[in-house]
Design goal:
about 350 residues; alpha/beta; Rossmann fold; seven-stranded parallel β-sheet; disordered C terminus
Length: about 350
């Protein structure tokens, strides 16, 4: 049975509320009766999406001075910022942002930081994207504030980067030339299940740092997801494997087919080097009331709620310069847009 988090007396701090997962989490927290304080570079982007008990304050995680006072009176803070879509050295930006956030959290007496990272082997070669995710967790822990970290793979939900990429490819291409990364194994999680984990961490009883690997019951590849999407949409699609297609050529191809993904396509593809699957079942033991959906159910849910969910949040909302025409100006106009950084993109 689904358990609702108990409202906290002090405000819950939320970063990334203008992005995909952060925006969904904002609605979950507000609907549960929590007082929320959103920190964003563009407060005006959220004013139409918050309830009277939610505060919206200006702050930039890359500017430590701007964070001063934003966490006063806060016991629990969500860190939902990631710079994969940024230009330049995004790894250095991630480290600096996490350091600034952690230092202000410690100064303000924050008791817990809840962070969403990415699944991937802690040993061996990681892509810059996944390596940065894990480094951010280390930087946050170094602040001395307790960190509860969730590591997820592909997020299936209408509006998530991976799902929208799959949707664009399958809808547009009757015949797909598929590179090697299409066959890499992942363990997707539905957006609703991810939000359950993130909200359940508010009531987690622990005095130590904690890391939970989370995912649905199915281990599949991007190719499997494309085929399942096509099946549910009743589309006939032919996939021709071309293992020698390099990541660079693959990202160029992705950008030509789906222009909205041109800037971050290479970073996303680079992150799909190794399997991203759950190897530790601590999440199942700690949160037994959460029973994640399988891939078929998750895709069906995303398709069924596409209109409603896309009007709420979308991964591209974290990138101001993305062209609205890619998904339709009428649907983009109804969503807040900001550049606070992108949360878990996969």
């Amino acid at each position: 049975m689904k358990q609702e988090p108990v409202p906290t007396p002090s405000p819950i701090l939320l970063t990334g509320a203008t992005g995909y997962i952060g925006g969904r989490l904002l609605h979950v927290l507000q609907n549960a009766g929590h007082r929320v304080r959103c920190v964003t570079r563009r407060p005006e982007a959220l004013q139409s999406y918050v309830v009277p008990t939610t505060e919206v304050v200006s702050g930039n995680v890359l500017d430590q001075e701007s964070l001063t006072g934003t966490m006063d009176g806060v016991e629990i803070a969500y860190y939902m910022v990631h710079s994969m879509g940024s230009k330049g050295d995004f790894e250095e930006q991630d480290r600096r942002a996490a350091h600034n956030f952690g230092q202000e959290a410690r100064r303000a007496g924050v008791e817990r930081i809840i962070y969403l990272g990415g699944l991937g082997e802690t040993s061996g070669e990681l892509s810059p994207h996944l390596r940065s995710r894990q480094e951010v967790a280390e930087v946050l822990r170094a602040s001395g504030v307790q960190v509860v970290e969730f590591r997820a793979s592909i997020v299936i939900g209408s509006g998530s980067l991976s799902f929208e990429m799959i949707r664009s490819l399958v809808e547009r291409l009757p015949v797909m030339v598929t590179p090697r990364w299409v066959n890499v194994t992942a363990q997707p999680i539905a957006i609703d299940d991810l939000l359950q984990y993130l909200s359940a961490a508010l009531d987690l009883k622990t005095d130590d740092h904690a890391t939970f690997e989370i995912g649905g019951p199915d281990s599949v590849s991007y190719g499997d997801l494309m085929r399942e999407y096509a099946r549910q949409r009743q589309l006939r699609r032919l996939m021709i494997p071309v293992p020698l297609l390099t990541p660079r050529l693959s990202s160029l191809w992705l950008g030509l087919v789906t222009p909205l993904y041109a800037r971050i396509g290479r970073k996303l593809i680079d992150s799909i080097r190794h399997p991203t699957v759950v190897r530790d079942n601590a999440a199942q033991q700690t949160f037994p009331h959460i029973r994640p959906q399988g891939v078929r159910e998750a895709i069906a849910s995303a398709l069924g709620n596409e209109g409603r969910e896309c009007a709420a949040t979308h991964w591209a909302d974290a990138h101001q310069r993305e062209p609205a025409k890619e998904r339709g100006a009428e649907s983009r106009a109804s969503r807040p847009r900001a550049s606070d950084g992108e949360e878990n993109s996969l």
